[in-house]
Amino acid sequence: MNKVNLGVAVVTGASTGIGYATARALQKAGFRVFGTSRRAIPERSDGITMLTCDVTDDASVTKLVEKVLAETGRIDLLVNNAGIGLLGGAEESSTAQAQALFDVNVFGVLRVTNAVLPIMRSQGKGRIINISSVLGLIPSPYNALYASTKHAVEGYSESLDHELRTFGIRVALVEPSYTRTAFEENLTKPDRSLAVYDAVRADMEVQMRKSVESGDDPEIVAETIVKAATAKSPKRRYTAGKLAGQVRLLRRFVPESAFDKSLRKQVGLPV
Questions:
Q1: Is 189 helix (H, G, I), strand (E, B) or coil?
Q2: Which H or E run includes 266?
Q3: What pLDDT sits at residue 216?
Q4: Average pLDDT score, the chain
Q5: Residue 243 has pLDDT above 50, yes or no
Q6: Whole-angstrom Cα distance, residue 101 to residue 175?
Q7: Catalytic residue numbers?
Q8: Over the Cα atoms of the chain, what is R_g?
Q9: Residue 209 exposed, middle or buried by CB count within 10 Å (0-12, 13-18, 19+)
């Protein structure tokens, strides 16, 4: 039994990976946790209440919030974790595919956030944690569209935090690097692949798989999320893991030209 009651938390995309590790860590810290998955999953005995929610559907999001309110009467913490990836040259994706990516990674965040904000405002307090990425800080060849969604989440979150502070609500970003999950196995493929990109795209896929295999445990990201969720005065950004912290420092202090050369060398592109 938890010694403290930190309130009610909602974690989107909590069936596996970072989302599931986060749900468990928050429960251990003292939250009553509701996790979401796009499709129904078998009932678990871990104490986390799982609900179905498609973050691209307004009605589904509304139904989720109504269910949580019916059981608890409040929502104290929202962790926007649901997201998908896309690996390929930017030119290889149609506008429709790009819009579908943004619908999950960006507008999904907006939908769920907008649904819980009236509740948090009426409570006079609340916290929202949006899961970004180091690719919200740096460019990433063959991840242009995915990186764009994370840059959008960064700008949205930082601006929203300024808007909501007067209501007792804070918004924070958590920026992981490569994490050992099934994320890379579920990457969306370009819907109009071009032969001119085949060789480098294949190399990038191999590189990503290796990076994920040697990446951080999801629990490291989860610990960072708990820290952001429970800090009395939260920071605007939290990097999760050693590599993410190093990337943030390099991006901030290394001259742009040197960073550019280093990035191209790291991904195997001509300097």
A1: coil
A2: helix 256-266
A3: 86
A4: 93
A5: yes
A6: 19
A7: 15, 132, 146, 150
A8: 19
A9: middle
Q: Quick check: pTM over 0.90?
A: yes
pLDDT band per the 50, 70, 90 thresholds, residue 3: low
pLDDT exceeds 60 at position 7: yes
Pairing of strands 31-37, 126-131: unpaired
**Rounded-to-integer distance, Cα 252 and Cα 137, Å:** 9
- Dist. CA 251–CA 176, nearest whole Å: 15
- Structural domains of the chain, ranges and CATH numbers in brackets: 7-266 (3.40.50.720)
Question: From the DSSP assignment, how many helices (H) and strands (E) are in the chain?
Answer: 9, 7
- How far from chain centre, in Å, is Cα 202? 25
List pLDDT tens digits, range 42-88: 777 688 999 999 999 999 999 999 999 999 999 999 999 999 999 99
Report phi then psi at 7, rounded to 5: 110, -160
Q: How confident is the model at residue 184 (pLDDT cuts 50, 70, 90)?
A: low
b/e code 12-37 from CB counts within 10 Å (16+ = b): bbbbebbbbbbbbbbbebebbbbbbb
Give ∠ CA 179-17-73 in degrees, rounded to 5. Answer: 130
Provide, for the chain, the percentages of residues in helix, strand and coil under a 3-state DSSP scheme, each rounded to the nearest 5: 55, 15, 30
Give the number of C-alpha atoms closer than 13 A to the C-alpha of residue 109, restricted to the C-beta side: 26
Contacts of 270 (CB under 8 A, 6+ apart): 264
Closest by Cα among 176, 170, 131 to 154: 131
Residues in Cβ contact with 197 at an 8 Å cutoff, skipping those fewer than 6 apart: 88, 89, 91, 92, 142
Beta strands in 23-122, from DSSP E residues, in sequence order: 31-37, 49-52, 77-80
Pairing of strands 237-240, 169-176: parallel
